[in-house]
Amino acid sequence: MRAGVVAVPLQAEAPAQPSPFGFLFPMVVIFLIFYLLLIRPQQRRQREHEHMLAALQKGDRVVTAGGLHGSVVGLADDVVTLEIANLRGDRVRVKVDRARVERRIEAAKGGEEK
Question: What is the pTM of this model?
Fold first, then answer.
């Protein structure tokens, strides 16, 4: 060693502990984005669908989840009767679960149209 220079051992500094809020903040932001872009619109569509199902009435033209187009001719608690064809005087009617009605094409005459 040179004269006049004293060697001082260096002590390693302890690594700084990351803040727990540093991890929490990005997770909250990600959840907020999921809520605004996915969860909230899905809940709104579900409410609108339930409202449409509750407002079904005879004469409405609807489309089922299976793609059948027809007119509502009968309503029960969980079953909707649709007339899907009228062949040479014979009416073709099917019963469909109310939850499987996908959308209303047009409302019955005199009813409100959505």
Answer: 0.69
